[in-house]
Amino acid sequence: MGEFELIQHYFAAQAAARADVELGIGDDCALLNVPVGECLAVSTDTLVSDVHFFADVDPVALGHKALAVNLSDLAAMGAQPRWISLALTLPKADDVWLTGFTQGFHALAVKHNVALIGGDTTRGPLSITISAKGTVPAAQALRRSGAKAGDAIYVSGSLGAAALAVQQRIHNLPINSDALRDCSFRMDYPQPRCELGLALRGIATSALDLSDGLSGDLMHILRASGVAAEIELTNLPIASAVQRSVTPEQALQLALGGGDDYELCFTVPAGHETAISELAVALDLPLTRIGTITTGEPQIIWYHQGKAVELHINGWEHFHHGEAGKTS
Amino acid sequence: MGEFELIQHYFAAQAAARADVELGIGDDCALLNVPVGECLAVSTDTLVSDVHFFADVDPVALGHKALAVNLSDLAAMGAQPRWISLALTLPKADDVWLTGFTQGFHALAVKHNVALIGGDTTRGPLSITISAKGTVPAAQALRRSGAKAGDAIYVSGSLGAAALAVQQRIHNLPINSDALRDCSFRMDYPQPRCELGLALRGIATSALDLSDGLSGDLMHILRASGVAAEIELTNLPIASAVQRSVTPEQALQLALGGGDDYELCFTVPAGHETAISELAVALDLPLTRIGTITTGEPQIIWYHQGKAVELHINGWEHFHHGEAGKTS
Fold first, then answer.
1. Residue B24 or A135, more confident
2. Which ipTM score applies to this complex?
3. Chain B contact for A87 (CB, 8 A cutoff)
4. Quick check: helix, strand or coil at residue B253?
């Protein structure tokens, strides 16, 4: 058995058991039981060294993040996370690195009760492709195409912190160490909002996760739904570490165009304000109304204290997001 | 939209429609309908440049092969192929290369009626991860663990041709041009035996696909099933192009240890000889009995014209298979 086969056996030993895994790692395919009445939801993401993460990233953080960005897609669909395939390409079998990567991966897998059901381990330039699989009844799936005029637009958590950590890393910005720690944690350990996604079944008319920055990501909902949006900039939940560290203009750029937030943006029909407030308390997660869906060509109309304003979003700069073509 | 996003849209336009795709490319996840009473079967394979294929390989062949090796895993499980996720990492967006890759991929996808339902396109060192998904009733799945003493052992098609093409490519062996063309085609265009896998439901007690060479691959069945095997070497269906081109000893090494055959090896209970013969005719695919499962510790006992022989299999050399840890 080669060292890369051994790695796979090591991962297999870590794989959590789930009753819906008919056959796990070790055969030509895994066999999985999808509940009757539910769709299989599948998302695939590749992270490449020096493109999606710094080559010297802590492997614990990388193991976490590689899984987190895929679970985030399931969350955005309102899907119950169940199973993970991991394709890991490594320049060499480095024990310390592998132990760290597995630790980060495994901790998040346990937290969300997902089982590693297969994959491939190969020698080559460092890259990670994860396919996350969950299930959701088709009628309750949170698609991008269901937003209607009059719906309220919400985002979870806070925005801009991960993007600021990326900028600090590149430009060595003079940022207070407490704020930097907060932002770096948000960059390295995004938290997939799976519970929120499940709770939004039957409530939200559309949803997606914020990976490239709110302004661009919200446009996906607007185009898929054939609607426009009005956003009040003063309502944006910009992370306090960002507000403390940069100018208001820079903070807006990071929150709207910075990326890597992995929060959910979703729309709900008018009249659900109380339900959403209660949900925020139950999940201990801020859910902030930032605007309203309107009729019209897909576009975002920005308001500042109720007054329409022009806004040119460049996200400071589009580091790490220039050329990705993620579709599901 | 970046050029890599455009690629994804290009692939999306090629994606075949299937009635069981509730939601295809373009949302956070694809949504898929698994038939009631069937398991989801999932296999993931990564192909890395210079590890699994020559960097200058014809992109048409690469598009074919990347999909074929995954469909081969579904075939080995007796699963009906349905859906494909494609994670493609490319150094640059090269029109000619992409057109070729897509052509090879698409032709095989159409042949097996599988729909591309998502993935990721990223800039980085050339590598391809495909996750193939199909379905099979759990009780009919062709696992590795069901072989019983007395079962006949079969392989489909012929063995050794792809491995000889690899050796020729490395060592510039003096091989007749007709034979080389046959072998190169087997290396570049493996044919996943999906119809055979489906037909073996309810007949075969175990199965797998031959990717690393019969001797090593058969051991996976023997270990999973807790049985031994007796193989008659003169019954091995060594490809005629191989028989014509190298010594009998070299031909054996290629057939047993060479890899890249992507034929099925399967076991059936005694008494099914006629059914298998009829199946071979119906599929126009040789199905050759090469031996018998016996009780005992997992091992292969080799026979030559009925006489037990010692055999040291090195597969000529293990090019392209040294460090892969494929598990499902």
1. A135
2. 0.90
3. yes
4. helix
The segment(s) of chain A belonging to CATH 3.30.1330.10 are: 3-138
Q: In b/e form, how buried is each residue of A280-318, taking b as 16+ CB within 10 angstroms?
A: beeeebebbbbbbbeeeebebebbeeeeeeebebebbbb
Considering only the top CATH level, what class is A3-138? Answer: alpha beta
Binding residues of B: 28, 43-45, 52, 73, 119-120, 144, 209, 211-212, 260, 316
B3 Cα to chain A: minimum distance (Å): 7
Q: Contact A32/B43, CB-based, under 8 Å?
A: no
Is residue A144 part of an annotated ligand binding site? yes
Is B57 in the A-facing interface, judged by CB distances under 8 Å? Answer: no
The reply to whether residue B2 touches residue A324, judged by beta carbons under 8 angstroms, is yes
Residue B91 has which token pair? 């150094």
Backbone torsions φ then ψ of A133, nearest 5 degrees: -125, 135
Q: Do B44 and A2 touch (CB under 8 A)?
A: no
Candidates A3, A10, A29, A201, partner chain B, best to mutate (most B CBs within 10 A): A29
B257 in reach of chain A (CB within 8 A): no
Q: Angle, nearest 10°, between helix axes A3-14 and A95-111?
A: 30
Which residues of chain B neighbour A34 with C-beta distances below 8 Å? 34, 40
Touching check for A276 and chain B: CB below 8 Å?
Answer: no
Q: What is the mean pLDDT of residues B172-176?
A: 90
Q: What integer pLDDT is reported at residue B316 of this predicted model?
A: 56
CA distance, residue B1 to nearest chain A CA (Å) = 9
Least confidently predicted of A7-21, B127-141, B277-291 = A7-21
With b for 16 or more beta-carbon neighbours within 10 A and e for fewer, the B85-122 pattern comes to: bbbbbbeebeeebbebbbebbbebbeebebbbbbbbbb
Q: Is B121 within 8 Å of chain A by CB?
A: yes
Average pLDDT, chain A: 91
The C-alpha angle with vertex B165 and arms to B164 and B168, in degrees rounded to 5, equals 85
pLDDT higher than threshold 70 for residue A16: no
CATH number belonging to domain B152-309: 3.90.650.10
Distance of alpha carbon B192 from alpha carbon B211, whole angstroms: 11
* Chain B contact for A209 (CB, 8 A cutoff): yes
Q: How many beta-carbon contacts under 8 Å exist across A and B?
A: 282
Measured in degrees and rounded to the nearest 5, phi and psi for residue A13 equal -65, -25
CATH 3.30.1330.10 placement within chain B? 3-140
What per-residue confidence (pLDDT) applies to A320?
Answer: 38
Write out the residue limits of the CATH 3.90.650.10 domain(s) in chain A: 152-309
Among residues B258, B216, B217, the alpha carbon closest in space to that of B238 is found at B258
CB atoms inside a 10 Å sphere around CB B17 = 7
CATH 3.40.50.2020 holds for B3-140: no
Cβ-nearest to A143 among B27, B121, B323: B27
